[in-house]
Structure formats: C-alpha cells, structure tokens
C-alpha cells in the first residue's frame, strides 16, 4: 500500500515533466535543432559537472525553503499565497539591517542578526492573514494573494524613497556589509547558506513526517471535521502553521539577499518570484519534503542549464521557460482530474458502453448494480 | 385516484438494502407525511421518485401509468417537484430571477435579452395566485429562511408541478415560520396539489398531514390515517422494538451512589441561532449506564456535541468527578478521562483517507505511549494498532491500508477500541451501533457492559430504543430539547416510553390518556 502510494506520487510528478520535455523536444526539432543533444547539454551542464551541480544547488536552496513554506500550509488545506510576500519582505529588511549595522561587527553575529530579521519580517507578514482566518474566518487565499501586491508597492516606495542608495544610478537599497554576506565556496556560486537551508529542510522533514504536528497537518488537510472532533484545535494550528510558513519564506528571502543579491532591487525576487516558483516546486513534489527537494533541484537545473544552452547551442534559452510553462500546464491537468474525476468518468463511460453492447436490455439492472 | 403508486420498489447499494419492496400509494390532493429515523430510507425513496437514484427493481406508477424517471428534469416534466432541505438558490439574485433561473423570459423568441419587466409581472402574478407573501424584487440574501423556502416552492410551482415533495422542510425554520409554511401547504392542497413531506417531527405530522407512512430499516412498517393515530403510536412504530442481544440484567453489581459525571441546566443554540437545548440536567453514577432515548432531532445530537467539546454551551455547567469541565476542548476532555464515540462515524470518528494506524491513535496521538517530545514513534503506533485490532477482533483486508476500506462494523469497532483502550472513566457513546452488522453490534454491547461492570460510567445516546432499554440502568427521554422524563428500563413498557418520546409526561399519562394524540 505504502509503496503503491509512493509509485503513484512519483508518477504524478514525473509525468508532467516528461510530457513537457516531449513537447519541448518537438519545438526544438521544429526549429531545426537536435532535441536530444540539447537536453543532454542542458542536464549535463547543470547536474553532471561539479560546477554546474554546485550552481544548481545554490539556486535550488531558496526554492526548497519557499516550497516547504507552501507545503506546510497547503497540506493542511490552508492556501497561503503570502510566501512570495514574506520572502521579499524578509529579504528587504535583512538587506536594510545588513547595510546599517556597524561594519566592524564580526561576520557570525551580523549574519545571524540579518537572518533573524528576515525570519521575523516573514513571520509578521504571514501573521496578519493567519489571525484574520483563525479569529474572523476571513478567506486566507484572497487576503494573502492581494497582500502581495500591496506589499510590492510599499517596498517600491521604501526602495525609491526612504532607503534608497543615492550613490547608485538605479533604484536599489544600500549594499550590505561584507561581513553580512555569505561568501562563495571555491570557484562555485554555492555559499555556506546551503547548510542553513539544508538544516531547515531536515527539521521540516522530521516535523512533517514524524511529529505530532505533522500528523495533525495531514489530518487537517484530509478532514477538518475529524481533526476538530479529535481535539486538534485547528484555529490554533492555523496560526502555528502560518508562522512556520512565514519563517521559512523569510529565511529564503534573507538567504537570497545575503548569498546572491546583496541589495534590494525592484526585481529582487525575479520573475515570477521565488515564492511562486516555490509553489510550483511544492506542487511538483506533491507537498512532500523529499519531493520538494528533488523538484527544486530539477527546477534550478533548468535555470542554470538555460545559460549553457544559450552559449553552446543555437537553441534560444527561452525554451526553458516554455518547458517550465508546460510543466505547470500538465500539473494543472492533474488537479482538474482530481477535482472533477475526468479520467474516472472516462473509464466508467467506456465500461458502461462495453457492458451495454454485451448485454440486452433485460440485464440492465445488473449493470447498474455493478456500476 | 392514486397519483403516485409504487409496487415493490427496491434499492440496493451493494449488499445493503436501502429500500426493501416499498409499496406506497398516494392519493391526489392529500398531504402525506413520510416519517422514519435517519437512515431508515426516506431520502432514498424520495430520490428515486425525483429521478436522482434509479430503483434496483420494482415499478413506479404516476397517475396510473408506469413511468421511468431518469433525472430531476424528467420528474419536473412529469409534474413532480422537490424542495430540498438545503436550498439551492443564488443569494445575490432577486426572488424573481431565482424563480425563473433556467426558464428566463426573453424579449422575443430569438432575442438574447431578458424581459425584466415581464419577468417581474409573471412572478408577481404567480405569488398572488398562490397567495404567498413575497416581494419578487427582493434579493434572496436579504430575505428570511422562511421566505427563501417559499421561493423554492414557487420555483417548482412555476414549472407546473402538481406533486410537491418537501425534504425536512421545518428543520431550518423558526416556530412562527413553521406555522406559515403549514398554512401555505394547506392552501396548495385546496388548489389540488399533492404534497409529500419527509420529516421526523411527529408533532408536525399530526398538525399537517392527512395520512402518514412510517418507514423503518427500508420497509414500510405503518400506513395510517392521521386522524386515527397519535404521536405515541408513531414514535413506537418508528423506533420499533427488537430483542437486544447483550442485556444489562442487573445481575452484576448495582451502580454505586457516587456521582461520576453531572450536568446542570445546559443550554445551547444551533448554527441558525435557534435554541435547541433548554436547561438539561442529569447525573451519571459510577458503574452506571445512563441511556438517553428520544425521537431523533430532539436535541440529542446537540447534547452530545456539547459534551464532546465540538459545540459550546451558552449556559449551564458540566462536572466530571467534581471538577468543572464546561466547554472544554475535545483533547482536554480526553486527557481527564472522557472517552468519546461520536455520532457520525465517517465524519467525526474516523478519517477514511488516513491509515488504520493513524486513525487508531487519533485523539490520543499526544500520549507518551506513542509521542515523545512532539515526535511520533511509528513502531509504537503500529504496535498499538495491532493491539486494538486484536482485542476488538477488527477484521481488515490490509492492515496498512486506509480506514475507508473497512466495513461499517469493523470501522465502528476500531473507534470503540480506541476510546475504551485509553482507559477513560466516563464514556460518551452516541449511536454506537448505527449501521453495523449484528455480530459487531453484540460485540460492542458486550464491551460497553464490561466497561460499566468495571466501575466506569457511560452516557449512551441512541435512537434505537431496544439498545437504550437493553443496556441502561436508567433511561432519560428527550423531547424538544428537554428531558421529558426518566424511566426504569426494567419496568417500563414501550407504550410508556413512546408517550414520553411524544412529549407526554408521566404525570399526564397517569392523569388519564384522554388527550393522548395531541402532543402537548
């Protein structure tokens, strides 16, 4: 049974990727390039060379964190769309603190303070919708979704006004002190932040798989009435889960600031944004921590591989965006099916059709019984 | 003439027979009530009439002609309409828009535009025709529940329906609205409509219907003229009386004098803001099973929800072993030794899509037995699961599988196992054997008696009279949110219980049964 579930989960996530790659291959073939060679290049340069793999890991880490942030709430049927906001807000204030502390402070305490600031603001941002949901039953999906846009404008105001680095020719906040930065390890883009992210991953893995809270998350996601009757106090759990989600997002943002960006620019989180990418990663990983780790690495590999395609082949790197888009599309099909049972209905229709043809009308009742 | 007649109408779901050879004939222009407990098969029968379910066998005659109804649209075309318990209206649209939804009046045959003025006129004429009180231009979200129900009825009447089925129409109404509804239904009858009302409120049956059909366990057990019966007789027919297998014959020790659990003056309101419990008080002694009997819908469900921590009391107090536990959460209750077997096995007692092991620890997943410092011990969980399955003889196809795959009896045994094996002092058991096979029923009854004989206490709430009378040391009967009286299960006759369930107190019974049929 358990191995069956696992098989199903893997299939559910692997199929969308496979279909996306197949359609991507058709497009590559259509523009006159060799799809297999292109894919070989894409994955070789991003996963199979030490340098490529290290770079991929570097880009995967924030996605692992935002993916987990999505999973802890989605699995409990709480649709927290504020991961992007928590991530950006956490990153922003980690950057402000990292630039305004005394430059002579030692690296360890400075980094700790910055990370803590990121986590704190991530949590604060998630707390507002959590309280609204738990106390007033306000729909968290709408609130969290819309708050992101409000936040985007507020940060734009802060970055262009209050905290603007006037020495710079474009809109950004001051660069953080060298002591607040996570430095690259060797020749690779990867930084010590990877260890912090992996530590967070292990903690969340244990919590989700083996803890009382993880058990309650699963129960809440499967049946709210049941978990309430079993004394899981769902309103309190909603707040706890949103705090965890906000903390992970804030950590992702702070890490991104301190290991990659070093200052806040208006495109800090990229396009579509670390939080939104994290949502895809979480869906692709079936909201399971291991799945999220694999999905994040795959997703980051597409990103690092894209540059190699651009350099070493005639295929434009936009093909990677096409593949990413197709993955989302095929994932959506899976959810439509789960929601409306399309494949079930099709197989049922085929079954009834066959049965009708086999039997005469006098046997109609037995068909209904079987169905 | 019979407008509806069914001959041997049967519906099976797998092995379960929901309707067993139902022969029903309904005359044109009558108000017919169909009564029965939850799960007796009333809704299955109505859903077959309305085309939502197809009969496994049997024939259905409408105005003397055999018909096959495949969908609600078919039913409406044949002049048969249904008003559901939960309204299917669009709150943001007006009354007339809701009534004409799907049958909009266009400006001309091919025009895409709706003729609003004509629509309002038509609906106003319809309202006047039937003498209903409604303003066609009000938005549905702004009108009362009673008015919404009128909109539902008009929706059907507009479609020229002459048979109207109402499913539990009074469940959501205030007493005043109930009176209004009855008046409207009588008006409709005088205009030649046939009305079928599904209900389990006997007072309303007596007040409204011409004839009444009683269904129990999928069979018609009574077909009576309302004027020739009374509430007590109906109550007796509904709950029946079959021989209980395990019986509390008092041969073991009598209950102690010590009080284990008591409640004082409990009151609460339901989700619609109606008061459903009016000052309920009782005490349960050590080593005693206190039974609560009554026709369903008289506050028992709310009482159990309240005592299990999923509903809040607005007044009153609950004590366990002398300590107040009013409005405690379910986890707190379980911690101080209250075991809970909830009314709805599939919804509250178990989670069908979680594994047997996960269900076996639910509610007790924070105990040191399976949980250390917030982390669960999967080996201990499996051990606990195996212990429960073994001790309560729960048969499973796959022990690692989901609970949803278990049969009703085995699923219920799992719940009883979980609650009893945690060694509570007091057990709330609500409908502990509903929908389970005879073998499991006997087993569960024996376990409840063992638990009592070990000096613990049980509050047993059940709509199965034989269960309550067979197991309990004392029985309280609930009627309309109050305790109507207490009886000794060893001495009472089922007629006396029936009268109490119909709201006629012991004193009234003694002072002569002259007005027995009238309820209050």
Structural features, described:
The complex is a heterodimer of chains A (371) and B (520). Chain A has 371 residues and is an all-alpha fold. Chain A is built from 15 helices and no strands. In chain A, helix 2 packs across helix 12, helix 3 runs parallel beside helix 7 and helix 4 runs antiparallel to helix 5. Chain A is globular, with a radius of gyration of 23 Å. Chain B has 520 residues and is of the alpha/beta class. In chain B, the strands form five sheets. A six-stranded mixed sheet of chain B has the order 6-7-8-3-9-10, with helices on both faces. A six-stranded mixed sheet of chain B has the order 16-19-20-13-21-22, with helices on both faces. Chain B has a four-stranded antiparallel sheet with strand order 2-1-4-5, with helices on one face. In chain B, helix 8 crosses helix 17 and helix 14 runs parallel beside helix 15. The C terminus of chain B is likely disordered. The interface between A and B is medium-sized, with 26 and 38 residues.
Largest sheet, strands/sense/barrel of chain B: 6 strands, mixed
Number of helices of chain B: 18
List the helices and strands of chain A in order. Answer: HHHHHHHHHHHHHHH
Question: Total number of β-strand segments of chain B?
Answer: 22
| Helical residues, percent of chain B | 25-40%
Low-pLDDT residue spans of chain B: 513-520
The averaged pLDDT of chain B comes out at: 87
Sheet with most strands of chain A: none
Uncertain spans of chain A: 360-371
In terms of structural class, how would the helical and strand content of chain A be classed?
A: mainly alpha
Structural shape of chain B: globular
Most extensive interface: A-B, 26 and 38 residues
Structural class designation of chain B: alpha/beta
Multimeric status of the protein: heterodimer
Count of alpha and pi helical runs of chain A: 15
């Amino acid at each position: 049974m358990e191995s069956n579930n696992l098989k199903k989960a893997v299939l559910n996530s692997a199929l969308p990727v496979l279909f996306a790659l197949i359609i991507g291959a058709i497009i590559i073939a259509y523009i006159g390039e060799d799809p297999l060679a292109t894919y070989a290049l894409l994955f070789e340069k991003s996963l199979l060379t030490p340098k490529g793999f290290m770079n991929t890991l570097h880009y995967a880490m924030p996605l692992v964190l935002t993916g987990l942030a999505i999973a802890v709430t989605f699995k409990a049927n709480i649709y927290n769309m504020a991961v992007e906001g928590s991530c950006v807000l956490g990153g922003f204030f980690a950057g402000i603190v990292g630039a305004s502390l005394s430059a002579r402070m030692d690296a360890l305490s400075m980094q700790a303070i910055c990370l803590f600031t990121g986590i704190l603001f991530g949590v604060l941002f998630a707390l507002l919708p959590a309280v609204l949901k738990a106390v007033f039953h306000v729909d968290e999906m709408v609130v969290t979704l819309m708050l992101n846009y409000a936040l985007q404008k507020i940060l734009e105001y802060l970055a262009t006004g209050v905290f603007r680095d006037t020495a710079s020719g474009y809109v950004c906040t001051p660069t953080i002190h060298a002591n607040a930065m996570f430095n690259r390890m060797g020749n690779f883009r990867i930084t010590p932040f990877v260890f912090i992210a992996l530590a967070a991953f292990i903690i969340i893995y244990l919590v989700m798989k083996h803890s009382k809270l993880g058990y309650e998350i699963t129960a809440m996601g499967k049946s709210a009435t049941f978990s309430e009757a079993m004394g899981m106090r769902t309103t309190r759990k909603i707040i706890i889960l949103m705090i965890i989600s906000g903390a992970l997002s804030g950590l992702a943002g702070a890490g991104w600031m301190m290991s990659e960006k070093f200052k806040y620019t208006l495109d800090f989180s990229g396009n579509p944004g670390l939080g939104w990418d994290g949502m895809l990663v979480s869906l692709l990983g079936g909201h399971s921590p291991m799945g999220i780790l694999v999905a994040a690495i795959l997703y980051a590999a597409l990103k690092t591989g894209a540059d190699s395609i651009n350099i070493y082949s005639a295929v434009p790197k936009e093909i990677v965006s096409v593949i990413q888009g197709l993955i989302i599309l095929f994932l959506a099909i899976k959810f439509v099916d789960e929601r409306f049972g399309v494949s079930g209905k099709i197989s049922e229709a085929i079954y009834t059709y066959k049965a009708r043809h086999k039997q005469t009308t006098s046997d109609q009742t037995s068909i209904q019984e079987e169905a | 003439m019979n407008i509806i007649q069914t001959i041997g109408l049967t519906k099976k779901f797998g092995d379960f027979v929901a309707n067993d050879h139902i022969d029903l004939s309904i005359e044109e222009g009558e108000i017919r009530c169909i009564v029965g407990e939850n799960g007796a098969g009333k809704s299955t029968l109505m859903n077959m009439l309305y085309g939502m379910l197809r009969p496994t066998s049997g024939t259905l005659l409408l105005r003397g002609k055999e018909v096959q109804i495949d969908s609600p649209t078919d039913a409406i075309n044949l002049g048969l309409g249904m008003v559901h318990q939960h309204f299917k209206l669009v709150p943001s649209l007006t009354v007339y828009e809701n009534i004409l939804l799907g049958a909009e009046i266009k400006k001309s045959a091919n025009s895409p535009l709706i003729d609003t003025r004509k629509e309002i006129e038509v609906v106003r004429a319809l309202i006047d025709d039937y003498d209903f009180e409604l303003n066609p231009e009000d938005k549905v979200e702004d009108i009362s529940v009673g008015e919404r129900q009128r909109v539902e009825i008009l929706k059907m009447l507009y479609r020229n329906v002459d048979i109207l089925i109402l499913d539990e129409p009074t469940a959501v109404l205030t007493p005043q609205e109930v009176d209004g509804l009855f008046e409207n239904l009588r008006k409709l009858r005088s205009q030649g409509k046939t009305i079928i009302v599904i209900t389990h409120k006997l007072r309303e049956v007596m007040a409204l219907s011409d004839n009444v059909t009683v269904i129990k366990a999928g069979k018609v057990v009574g077909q009576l003229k309302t004027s020739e019966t009374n509430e007590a007789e109906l109550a007796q027919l509904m709950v029946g009386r079959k021989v209980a297998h395990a019986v509390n014959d008092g041969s073991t020790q009598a209950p102690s004098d010590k009080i284990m659990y008591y409640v004082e003056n409990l009151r609460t309101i339901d989700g619609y803001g109606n008061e459903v419990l009016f000052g309920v008080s009782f005490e349960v002694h050590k080593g005693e099973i206190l039974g609560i009997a009554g026709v369903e819908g008289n506050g028992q469900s709310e009482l159990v929800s309240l005592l299990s921590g999923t509903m809040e009391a607005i007044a009153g107090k609950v004590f366990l072993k002398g300590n107040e536990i009013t409005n405690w959460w379910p986890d707190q209750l379980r911690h101080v030794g209250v075991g809970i077997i909830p009314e709805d096995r599939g919804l509250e007692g178990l989670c069908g899509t979680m594994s047997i092991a996960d269900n076996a620890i639910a509610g007790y997943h924070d105990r040191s037995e399976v949980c250390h410092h917030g982390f669960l011990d999967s080996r201990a969980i499996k051990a606990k699961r195996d212990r429960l399955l073994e001790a309560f003889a729960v048969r499973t196809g796959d022990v690692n599988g989901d609970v949803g795959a278990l049969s009703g009896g085995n699923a219920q045994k799992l719940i009883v196992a979980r609650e009893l094996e945690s060694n509570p002092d007091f057990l709330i058991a609500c409908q502990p054997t509903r929908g389970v096979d005879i073998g499991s029923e006997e087993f569960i009854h024996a376990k409840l008696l063992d638990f009592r004989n070990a000096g613990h206490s049980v509050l047993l709430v059940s709509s199965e009279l034989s269960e309550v009378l067979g197991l309990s040391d004392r029985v309280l009967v609930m009627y309309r949110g109050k305790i109507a009286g207490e009886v000794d299960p060893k001495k009472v006759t089922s007629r006396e219980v029936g009268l109490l369930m119909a709201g006629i107190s012991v004193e009234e019974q003694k002072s002569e049964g002259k007005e027995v049929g009238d309820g209050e």
